[in-house]
Amino acid sequence: MKPSTLAALLSFVIPGAGQLYNGHIWRALFWLIVTPGLWIGSGGLFGWVCHLIAAWTAWHKAQEHADTLTR
Prior knowledge:
Residues 5-28 form the DUF5683 domain. The chain crosses the membrane at residues 28-54. It is a single chain. The protein starts with a helix and ends with a helix. By secondary structure, it is mainly alpha-helical. Helix 1 (3-13) runs antiparallel to helix 4 (47-70) and helix 3 (25-41) packs antiparallel against helix 4 (47-70). The protein has one domain (3-65). The protein is built from 4 helices and no strands.
């Protein structure tokens, strides 16, 4: 499994886990705090959006990192 796919999967399961896997501590803390807040604050309406955005950003940052290594 590619590191970017694994990062996205981790962040989809636990928002912030993919960012932590990528080594972005502050981004991980942001998603770990914001996502549960939106799940609770919106009654579940916006929590799933945070899960998807967290997974996408983890994937995107891992792809950027992989691209810089191949240059």
